[in-house]
Amino acid sequence: MKIGPIEVDPPVVLAPMAGVTDLSFRQLCRGYGAGLYVSEMIATRALVERNPKTLHMLASDDQEPLRSVQLYGVDPSVTGRAVRMLVDEIGVDHVDLNFGCPAAKVTGKGGGAALPLHHLLFRSIVRAAVSAAGAVPVTVKLRMGVDAHHLTAVPAGRAAEEEGAAAVALHARTAEQLYSGPARWEAIAELKSAVRTVPVLGNGDIWEAADALRMMAETDCDGVVIGRGCLGRPWLFRDLADAFAGRSLQTPPSLGETASLVQRHAEALCDAFGEEAGMRRLRKHTSWYLTGFPVGGERRRLLSRVATLEELATLLGDLDPEVPFPPEAHRTTRGHSHGPRPVALPAGWLESADDPTPPVGANDAVSGG
């Protein structure tokens, strides 16, 4: 699969996830297989105002072959400035635009999954980003729409294609669904039928490598976007590489191997954020890594509060390293699972779909989602 000049082989993209897809996690995932690994979502306003926390989220290293950043923005002018800054100052190779975030703090200001309803504004933002990016490819991430009565994926996908986007990705749920219920892969097939000149990528309910192959066979999409399926399972990218190459899948890590991976992840986070902040970021990962393993409720509770690398090593050190990976844990939900929930929207948002102006107050520095 080619996204502009970038060849993505296997056709696998790491979904941006707030508080997850920092440099440390991207390094771990990339160590298991090739693909395109995208940063956490960055707010355009925070970027152009050089917010220190936002700039830190752009951290990369010499081993990262492609620098890929996702932006959230609601103003064409600010988005253009942010993209130009990424290209000229940061040297990114790929920019993704988030029009799929269902978080209330984002949709309530007209951003994320709410924005494609305002089709003229949507076009303007994509056009501004593509113009500012020059030769750097710009892609668009969508949801099916706000809810079942306000579906926007097909017209938004076509508009993005016409405005020069290099690919379109679809999380096959509405914002109202959040992460509940099965992903509706038929929506990916519908988008693929409508968008003919650039790749269409599918996202939703890919927990194992076989799911990716089945999604591509059923929808004819060109690639897949991996979100919750890789939480605590960075080796999913190895499985995907093997599956796409027609190779047999390798044995999943044992409990001992998984514990070593947790420790390595923790050390990388502490190097990047300092021990206190790094261990706070690790806590949610420990639950995901150990899902399905018989480690005991008290140990899980202690790991959810772990504060130092030494404490982590103690909690992991006496686990039985020979315990094999529990097969049923592959499909155990990790990460967000809530929904459905009514979508927060600005007052009059549904009635003003032809308004091309940015929503009032939506340029606040919002990151995550």
Descriptive overview:
- The strands form 3 sheets. Strands 3-4-5-6-7-10-11-12 form an 8-stranded parallel beta barrel, surrounded by 6 helices. The chain has a two-stranded antiparallel sheet with strand order 1-2. Strands 8-9 form a two-stranded antiparallel ribbon.
- The protein is an alpha/beta fold and 369 residues long.
- The chain folds into 2 domains: 248 residues, TIM Barrel (Alpha-Beta Barrel), CATH 3.20.20.70; 69 residues.
Short description:
The protein is 39% helix and 14% strand. By secondary structure, the protein is α/β, with parallel strands linked by helices.
What is the CATH class of the largest domain? Alpha Beta
Annotation, overall tally of beta strands:
12
Distance between the termini: 27 Å
The major sheet is characterized as: 8 strands, parallel, barrel
Count of domain modules: 2
The number of distinct helices, counting runs of at least 4 residues, comes to 14
CATH superfamily grouping of the largest domain: Aldolase class I
